[in-house]
Amino acid sequence: MVKNGVGRDIPEYIEGIGHLKPYEKPFSVVPEGIKAGSKLKRPLPHKSKLIKNIEEAVKATGLKDGMTISFHHHFRNGDYIVNMVVDVIAKMGIKNLRLAPSSLGTCHGSLIEHIKNGVITKIESSGIREPLGTAISEGIMDYPVIIRSHGGRARAIESGELKIDVAFLGAPSCDEYGNANGFNGKSLCGSLGYAMVDAKYADQVVLITDNLVEYPCLPASINQTQVDYVVVVDSIGNPKGIVSGVIRHDKNPRDILIAENAVKAIEASGYFKNGFSYQTGASGASLAVTSLLRDKMIEKNIVGGFGLGGITAQLVQLHEEGLFRGLFDTQCFDLVAAESIGKNPKHFEIDASFYANPHNSGPAVNNLDIVMLGALEIDTDFNVNVIAGSDGVISQASGGHPDTAAGAKMSVILAPLIRGRLPIVVDRVTTVVTPGETVDVLVTDYGIAVNPLRQDLIENFRKAKLPLYTIDELQKMAEKLTGKPETIEFGEKIVGIVQYRDGTVIDIIKQVK
Amino acid sequence: MVKNGVGRDIPEYIEGIGHLKPYEKPFSVVPEGIKAGSKLKRPLPHKSKLIKNIEEAVKATGLKDGMTISFHHHFRNGDYIVNMVVDVIAKMGIKNLRLAPSSLGTCHGSLIEHIKNGVITKIESSGIREPLGTAISEGIMDYPVIIRSHGGRARAIESGELKIDVAFLGAPSCDEYGNANGFNGKSLCGSLGYAMVDAKYADQVVLITDNLVEYPCLPASINQTQVDYVVVVDSIGNPKGIVSGVIRHDKNPRDILIAENAVKAIEASGYFKNGFSYQTGASGASLAVTSLLRDKMIEKNIVGGFGLGGITAQLVQLHEEGLFRGLFDTQCFDLVAAESIGKNPKHFEIDASFYANPHNSGPAVNNLDIVMLGALEIDTDFNVNVIAGSDGVISQASGGHPDTAAGAKMSVILAPLIRGRLPIVVDRVTTVVTPGETVDVLVTDYGIAVNPLRQDLIENFRKAKLPLYTIDELQKMAEKLTGKPETIEFGEKIVGIVQYRDGTVIDIIKQVK
Predict the structure, then answer these.
(1) Cα(B408)–Cα(B279) distance, rounded to whole angstroms?
(2) Domain count, chain A
């Protein structure tokens, strides 16, 4: 065991996983070597890539026991692809696969069966939700899962740490030679940002579509130089689960309070000026922040440089109103965003490496000024947990949380002081996903706490007379209402490894009792 | 010496170059291994990439004696970048560099001095024109130059055969963090297709611009994840030399005759139907073909799938009129094309690998039906020379010639039967660039010859009563008017190696006497 940079004990070696490198500091890893490369090919001209079904595609790729398969999660809880493909693979008798999707959702519960029957023996993903997360936390797998951020996954693939043998990528719009985009078709999802990384680096790429269009399918987000086979199926996803309509603004008064405090913090930060850049999520409080921010931008005549994300209808509106010059989009959260990316030339589709990989020549997060983030828990060292709930069970996702926190000039955690009768601020988060050193501000409905590393922000906020507290004060305030939360007890088995974006290990997750 | 697949004697080894692999057949090379990768980096957030001048950029990249530098040729004869950068490097005392631009033009004559003074000791390029081509053919260099097609260069870079240490890429529009495109700014050139390959694979990428725009510069053809430094200079090129205005249609009656024959051949070929794809150049005869083809498409109510190129105003017009569903564009030939690529979403910018690299999963040429090509000479085996003129001097470019000929279902050489008082058909071309096996039809002002390998086309053309001759008959027809041309005499020194697109050697070029 080695104590890492956030004080967690990290084993030096795990059977079946290998040596672990403990996390040190946000930017302490300087990578050596070169980017990975997919296999060179020699396709003969005028040869179709259409293949009649998934089974034939799996055969054509030469998928074998022990290989790594990947998927994207742009269809979110509407995804049919993962289950469809793994079912076929299971029937074909292929075993012992490493499953490396960009993320997994609640719709992927049937993977539990495929873990039990030995088809899937390893999982690497940004997120894992119930019921699969629960099964994993209860110890169903022999090897721990690896949790990576979106930028961390792109880095792992690009550096060769995560070698994908076959990527099975759902394509909302696709031609027979492998040009595809996500902004047309009945299963549209907008940006294919996560899938674009797999398409570049996987040795074999299979596109699966329910909307084969005339050649060429343009503009192409994934293109024919990357794709080996194209399969047409009836349906790749449930549109209702893929993109929501416009997300309603939450009128929850607690969210409004948090949002008001957040916008005050943005205004006072010194970063709220022409050209500023901004990322937020799709939670109620986040949406409320953007809404209030828009009013402030109009009032103060401020035009932002870019919005980043995770793009919502709200950010599209701000872009179309001229309030953000451009949008960098690795994932669309709603239908308006999904359609906008196909028509607004400065609503620009980026892959997950462009978004957040710390080891290319400059990811988008490196120019980010302000980001709004969530938290399951935050501790008094500002470490944040976004993966395992207060019960210690894997249920959420790392996502872009550690990436944007590291890149942004000011990372803001938006959270109610108390959630589910538990304080949001704890002595020590169950699992560290984002290190406190990269977390600048906690904004709650009861007040604001600033990381003591950021005396500059403390001073600015004090001048602006914001409701400033230390994080310990906020913790005490919460505990007065809730009492001290009970400590969760874990077993000894390691069920998850949480990588920091640079490939080091920031925490491990143990089996729940 | 080994006799290769087109009967040329190829040395097995050349000092300073290494072992040569003789050309066999158009698709006989099946590559092994994986794609090359550029260096992994770790840029800190919020750190500018702006650097004050080219000298500082060269220093920052760590360029050293013996390294490889690259450039793109989208500025054609208006390019200032190559001379500007090599002058600075020469002043800094760096020697013995390999120069690997996508092509070189007549504006690069000052490189002769830098060859003499030892700054440049090797050159690899698609084309080399006078006066540099003449100097090389006269033996100025110690090592032979390597001539590659556009697809061949992309393959060489992508496979690691051509490793670029530092790419210096002119950017008509660029922000301070390295997002760039070619369709805005005073030096606009449209597609940055050749440069995009260098940006992906070079270890260090320097963008040089005369039009720094607000961040983010979107859409980005080259992007911040690929770029290390950005330098602003007064001018990167002479707009007059970069893109011509709309190219006038040639009224040369010889070209009209050739074009009329070519369109008859297209009509009779069996490939002229809905969804067909088409590439052509910007010569008078090519433009005349497209013009007549447009009339035929309207008359017969035929809509093409895509136009490929080398895009001109003409093809933009056909696209905007709905006659081609999409355009794949690796290089814009005129201002209309350069502006169109920024506004027509299905006028799609592709890099040279997408265009023509035989070793990715499917280049655009693989779906090409019909291509119109030129020739300096064609021999009775249908081998074509597009690099060294009838005097044996390197003066032109391989370009996409061998790539499109190999990919297209029907490759058509457009040429006058007699040029400069010499017959276009010869017993044996001075230098083979494109193997006869991939050349299907020769269309001249006097008649049409079809490669005997294509009995299907011969039959179709015969049925359509086209003016069919054997290529020997056309040769005799020409020689009756011109006499038999004299054979050129060469020295023993090898001054050039002509690679086929797959990396094998299709011919060598010797010193002129």
Answers:
(1) 9
(2) 2
Assess B27–A contact: CB distance below 8 Å, yes or no.
yes
Smallest Cα distance from B240 to chain A, Å: 28
Rounded (5°) CA angle B206-B211-B212: 70
A365 shares its domain with A223: no
**pLDDT mean over B273-287:** 93
Three-class DSSP labels, A136-168? HHCCCCCCCEEECCHHHHHHHHHHCCCCCCEEE
Question: Are B150 and B290 found together in one domain?
Answer: no
Binary contact (A34, B35; C-beta < 8 A): no
Residue B243 has pLDDT above 80, yes or no: no
Taking the C-alpha atoms of residue B89 and residue B53, their distance in angstroms, rounded to an integer, is 12
Residue B406 contacts A where some CB pair is shorter than 8 Å: yes
Residue B246 lies in a domain: no
For residue B56, what pLDDT is reported? 98
pLDDT tens-digit map of A117-144: 999 999 999 999 999 999 999 999 999 9
Q: Grade residue B311 by pLDDT with cuts at 50, 70 and 90.
A: very high
CA distance B13 to B510: 15
Beta-carbon contacts of residue A213 (< 8 Å; ≥ 6 apart)? A173, A174, A175, A184, A185
**Yes or no, beta carbons of A228 and B361 under 8 Å apart:** yes
- What's the predicted TM-score (pTM) here? 0.97
Largest CA distance in chain B: 72
Q: Do B214 and A44 touch (CB under 8 A)?
A: no
Residue A76, helix vs strand vs coil: helix
CATH number assigned to the domain comprising residue A463: 3.40.1080.10
- Chain A contact present for B409, CB below 8 A: yes
Out of A30, A40, A46, closest to residue B159 by CB: A40
Percent of chain B with pLDDT over 90: 94
The model's pLDDT over A91-107, given as tens digits with 9 standing for 90+, comes to 999 999 999 999 999 99
d(CA A442, CA A450): 6
Q: Is the pLDDT of residue B242 over 90?
A: no
Q: Which A positions 33-62 lie with beta carbon below 8 A of chain B? A: 33-47, 49
Query: Do A258 and A237 reside in the same domain of the chain?
Result: no
Residue B330: inside a domain:
yes
B426, pLDDT greater than 60? yes
| B455 CB neighbour count, 10 Å cutoff | 10
Q: Does A193 touch chain B (CB under 8 A)?
A: no
Q: Name the amino acid, one letter, at B282.
A: A
Which among B27, B178, B367 has the least Cβ separation from residue A42?
Answer: B27
> B-chain residues within 8 Å CB-CB of A363?
224-225
Read off the amino acid at residue B306.
Answer: F
For the cut 70, the answer to whether the pLDDT of residue A249 exceeds it is no
Going by C-alpha positions, the residue among B473, B508, B481, B478 that lies closest to residue B493 is B508
pLDDT at residue A248 tops 80: no
Contact across the interface for B45 and A366, Cβ inside 8 Å: yes
Q: Considering chain B, what is the average pLDDT of its residues?
A: 96
Instruction: With CB atoms and an 8 Å threshold, state whether B305 touches A49.
Output: no
- Asked whether residue B130 falls in the same domain as residue B275, the answer is no
pLDDT tens-digit profile of A379-432?
999 999 999 988 899 999 999 999 999 999 999 999 999 998 999 999 999 999
Contacts of B49 in chain A (CB under 8 A): 362
Whole-complex ipTM: 0.96
Q: How confident is the model at residue B487 (pLDDT cuts 50, 70, 90)?
A: confident
**Chain A closest-CA separation from residue B129 CA (Å):** 31
Cα B80 from Cα B76, distance rounded (Å)? 10
pLDDT at residue A305 is higher than 70: yes
Asked if the C-beta of A348 comes within 8 angstroms of chain B's C-beta atoms, the answer is: yes
Q: How far is the C-alpha of A103 from the C-alpha of A119, rounded, in Å?
A: 18
Can you give the residue range of the structural domain that contains B478? 253-482
